[in-house]
From TrEMBL:
Protein name: YqbQ/XkdQ domain-containing protein
Lineage: Bacteria, Bacillati, Bacillota, Bacilli, Bacillales
Annotated TM spans: none
InterPro entries noted in UniProt: Bact_Kbp (IPR052196), YqbQ/XkdQ (IPR056937)
Lineage top rank: taxon: Bacteria
Organism name: Bacillus inaquosorum KCTC 13429
Pfam families cross-referenced by the UniProt entry: YQBQ
All residue ranges annotated as the YqbQ/XkdQ domain in the record: 20-314
Length: 325
């Protein structure tokens, strides 16, 4: 079932694959594979790979990954290698930038052009950012996330960087009408579940300094205050926004942080190739009272012979994690 190729110019050379692991992380770049291939068996030799080669992985005839080989571990008869998709070039390269009155998608096009990164479809993000100044050397990925985070803070809209057939793209975060179902007793073989209010906020306060004055916006969760008491989240905003935008951001932040935080992770299941980080799945674990849609935070797929298994972590809301740019 595993089809693994190395692409030389326009020619696809099939590799003899023993196993392939494919993984990705929401709001982290890039997606990657780790593969072990047979390069010699008796007097017979097979195709191999070197750093910089483009490899393509298919499962049951469907392309799941295309990327560049970055590391190898050769042995007498086999070779293990790691490959990353085009988002790797956003992580590996750093620079400084000054953007004025540009949307995030316009910034991405400029960066991709500067670093010769081929692009697929780049969605129009709509929101114009007055100024984004990167004074210190920063990864291209973090620069783009800063722009996407500002866009999300003001509009509530999420956008996703992705790699498709060797090209960088940006799209509105996928929210398909139909989602895969994972259920204990059917295709879930194990999981870990816990609940907590350690990271909950019942009141949010944002402050911004401008012209020696402090501007403030706040939002509160009345129900949460009555039940859990005051759990205040504070943030100093450095973006050039007005009072109305500051209040809007406080409301968005409260929506993200209120309520009991429930953690569902290490879900082991029968493999479904389409289940990837950043996409929704419906999970049914009746014994834990869980029957709802989650977003895949991390995914790792293991392929060997005709067997495919996966392990995923999920989150309730598709919000940008704290500490991300």
């Amino acid at each position: 079932m595993i089809e693994l190729f190395v692409i030389k110019d326009t020619e696809w050379l099939e590799l003899v694959a023993e196993s392939v692991s494919l993984e990705g992380h929401r709001y982290q770049a890039p997606r990657s594979i780790e593969a072990t291939i047979v390069i010699k068996q008796g007097d017979q030799t097979y195709y191999s790979v070197t750093e910089g080669d483009t490899v393509l992985f298919k499962w049951k005839g469907k392309e799941l990954f295309r990327g560049i080989v970055f590391a190898r571990t050769p042995d007498e008869h086999t070779l293990a290698f790691s490959a990353y998709d085009m988002l790797q070039y956003l992580v590996k390269n750093q620079d400084v930038y000054v953007f004025s009155n540009q949307r995030a998608d316009q910034m991405i096009r400029r960066i991709a052009n500067d670093f010769q990164i081929p692009t697929a479809s780049i969605a129009n993000t709509g929101h114009t950012i007055k100024s984004l100044v990167i004074k210190n050397d920063t990864t291209l990925y973090d620069i783009i996330l800063k722009a996407l985070k500002q866009t999300k803070s003001q509009t509530g809209r999420h956008y996703q960087l992705y790699s498709e057939k060797g090209k960088l793209g940006l799209r509105a975060w996928p929210d398909p009408s139909e989602v895969w179902v994972l259920e204990t007793g059917v295709n879930i073989t194990g999981y870990q579940y816990s609940t907590s209010i350690n990271d909950t906020a019942t009141r949010v306060v944002l402050r911004r300094q401008k012209d020696n004055k402090t501007y403030k916006a706040s939002a509160k969760d009345s129900s949460g205050l009555n039940k859990y008491g005051v759990l205040q989240y504070t943030e100093t905003v450095t973006d050039d926004i007005n009072q109305a935008q500051l209040q809007q951001r406080a409301d968005v932040r409260l929506a993200e942080k209120k309520g009991v935080k429930k953690e569902l992770k290490n879900i082991q299941a029968v493999g479904i190739p389409e289940v990837q980080s950043g996409l929704p799945v419906y999970i049914s674990i009746p014994e834990a009272g869980i029957k709802k849609t989650y977003w895949v935070d991390t995914d790792r797929h293991e392929f060997k012979g005709t067997k495919h298994t996966m392990t995923i972590d999920v989150v309730e809301k598709n919000t940008m994690p704290e500490g991300v740019s």
